[in-house]
Amino acid sequence: MMRYSRIVPRNGDQPLYIASTAVVMAEIIKLLVCLCMLRSELKSWSLCRSALVKDIIYNPNETVRLMTPSALYAIQNNLLYLALSNLEAATFQITYQLKILSTAIFSNVLLNRRLNQNQWFALGLLMVGVTLVQITTREEEQPDMEAIKQEQNPMLGLMAVLASCISSGFAGCYFERMLKQSSTSMWMRNIQLGISALGFSIIAMVTSDFQAIWRHGGLFQGYTILTWMVISNQALGGLLVATVVKHADNILKNFATSVSIILSSIVSFYFFDFQPTVMFVLGAMLVTTATYFYGSADESHRRQLQHQQQTPSSIKPHH
């Protein structure tokens, strides 16, 4: 949807919506949803208000500590729009899986997490698959999109994806470290994160697009139903992933990611006249396999560690 919203032909003088405003709107929706979930968790608005005052107003240090990942998330969300304005959706979706590699590296640095041989093998498959996709990708846009295609810069899109992967890996591991060091509710953490992210998103919007917003129609210029669908999907998608990880496991999350790669390719084929090559299909298969294999190995290793930690406590010492 994001890709289509950036390249769909527009009627007359209708402008293209400004990506930075969409990021701001997504952060507002995310904050509202987190507030509702926190209220549901605490059972009343009065308790919710007390918790917000306690954790945000009287304990600003936690919010300040979250400024680093929130700034990175704000940058990342803007980079996603830039990437999908210049890359075909299937190519983006596959290349974006390099965030698994960046997450693995930062997990080692920030969380002291070691990778096993199966995970290193999966990362190798991932690199090969993404390389094949980038080398062999060929896109044939519909004739009425030819002018838009000429304005696209695949190299800029690739750089945006890579920067977004690095940002995602570091911010995710940093946020996970904070979650594990505190008993604060996940929804409260997301509210603290969202407040900072909204602030940084507004700064990015004003810095880069203030003139366009002021002169050409305000914040909501070029907005359509499709734009609001994209914004809502972007806002709720991250919270959905967090919920899946909390209530399921990495295997299911990575299985869903693998399915999304396949769906993106199918949709791109039918809606954007995307013509995948044999090497693209091979690369996509390698990335899908690596994504699922890495998540399975990670979950297996985690369960093994839990078993090792629980086993000694069940053995009674001999006197």
TrEMBL record:
InterPro entries: EmrE-like, Nuc_sug_transpt. Pfam families: Nuc_sug_transp. Its main location: membrane. Coiled coil: none annotated. It is a multi-pass membrane protein. It comes from the Eukaryota. The chain crosses the membrane at residues 120-136, 156-175, 195-214, 220-242, 254-272, 278-295. It is found in: Membrane. One of its GO terms (cellular component) is Golgi membrane. Keywords: Membrane, Transmembrane, Transmembrane helix. Signal peptide: none annotated. GO terms for molecular function: pyrimidine nucleotide-sugar transmembrane transporter activity. NCBIfam families: nst. This is Nucleotide-sugar transporter-domain-containing protein. It comes from Phascolomyces articulosus. The lineage of its organism: Eukaryota, Fungi, Fungi incertae sedis, Mucoromycota, Mucoromycotina.
